[in-house]
Amino acid sequence: MSTPATKExxxxxxxxxxxxxxxxxxxxxxxxxxxxLAVMFFHFGQGxxxxxxxxxxxxxxxxxxxxxxxxxxxxxxxxxARSFWERRARRLFPALAVMLxxxxxxxxxxxxxxxxxxxGQGIATVFYVNNxxxxxxxxxxxxxxxxxxxxxxxxxxxxxxxxxVLLPLLxxxxxxxxxxxxxxxxxxxxxxxxxxxxxxxxxxxxxxxVDRLYLGTDTRAQQLLLGGLLGVIGARAVARGHSRIRFAxxxxxxxxxxxxxxxxxxxxxxxxGRLVAAQLPLAAVASVMLIIGALDPGAKISxxxxxxxxxxxxxxxxxxxxxxxxxxxxxxxxxxxxxxxVRLILTFAIATVSYIFLxxxxxxxxxxxxxxxxxxxxxxxxxxxxxxxxxxASYARALPEHAAPPFSGSGRTVFFVGDxxxxxxxxxxxxxxxNDIAVTGSFLLSCPLFDLDMVAGGAxxxxxxxxxxxxxxxxxxGDMESMAPDIGVFVGTSSxxxxxxxxxxxxxxxxxxxxxxxxxxxxDEALGDFSADTVAITSVPCTTLPSNPVNDPKNxxxxxxxxxxxxxxxxxxxxxxxxxxGSVTCTPDPSGLYIDGLHFSPEGAREVWDRLRPQLLALP
Length: 620
Hints:
The chain is 59% helix and 6% strand. It has 620 residues and is mostly helical.
């Protein structure tokens, strides 16, 4: 997230150069405004801007340009990395700290799984490593999470802060090697950018996930380095006595206009989360072109970007970016039915107050370094204190190995099969042996029971390609056959409450004849080889997930009722038993059963088991 550099940082001439104008470059603030508005409208669910997330690409390039310009102008004679890092800390950390405090307090009101995400991402954000934390924790950035985190967007701050650390170290190395000169700088930036771009293509060719390509500092480096290359070229021009803010002569305006058109086209037409290896360099080149035009005060594009409304938005762009996503999560449509304009107004109000009363006074004052050393400790402690239920989230992730555990208890043997919702239901029963019923089962997180392509929020939802779901299916079928349970239980799930694709790839809307036929075919495939004396199908539990385009169909009780009627009829036609859990899972407010609106908590699972056990024992 590129933040407006201070007047002293932007306008400080290098040794032996003539000073540039002391006027702030409002056109660069205009670029910030375009970028942050694109991101905000994308995150606020505006379907007309599916590529709005690429506003962060613009920020990376702009940050690369500005920070490199600042540092290269001062090096090597007046290069002071510590002073630079302190200025960046004063500029960035106070506003971030306030936002984190608000989010941590909000965490007290959310379920365990969301608390776990906030704790992990919050601590990672404090130390500016959230992009790598998201990758390490298996988060899917472009998926609509079952539990939305208000800190999901801070990965960009982590990438930028890593840039703020690594760039001065690179320049210090060149100074130490006595190779700090313009040709070496230009070759270094070009070479590193090419390495980053090539590495990204290689990762994509090897099947790396979209998230790995999108969130990695190594893959994002090409954008920062291209912006940095522009900064080096500009600083070189100043050193030769030219104006620092002119590139490409009389063609600057046309180049900038082409860059703006290219970016706007990508915002509107680029498919969400697709072709990342191509997106990163293309968006970076378009951003460089836009900056070239913006830096020419005589260019029409520069005057457009300098209009007061855009420049004013650019001034508070850091606060807008910090606050827009937490606001979208904390007071989104699922809780207050607040329209996007109202959320925009609230975001602008908080960002303006933050800029005037927090960011500017601290940036201009003298804040001792020890306070910045203390803040992370306080924030980490607050993250832990405000997420007391985070440890419970491990329950939903406590998955058995592919092989089903031995039966727990004695009596009638029951083997459960389903997705992770199924596991959250039977694991507590398996942990409490009884003498009238013995329980085991198999499930694997992110693996559906059968291969079914569903369409949610306009995107096709498939099993995670990084997980070997077919191997798991072979394993549970083999386990069931060898264990020969008295009862095999197939647990229904709200994950089927979407439109589906048939075998020909045609869309079959939920509730249509085509949808019903596809579900029946999938059930035939899943249940045809159930190695149990009695086969039972449970009803689909009602969910209480946070509202968003993916979760809303799962929460729709009319869809749940339709699917349960379909399952009941299918069971009767095939001689299977149907076990109805509606009396406990579809009450007016079943939220107390879940840790996240979907997976049962240990206490909720025991409550469901108290209703389920007698029904299982009564089966023939």
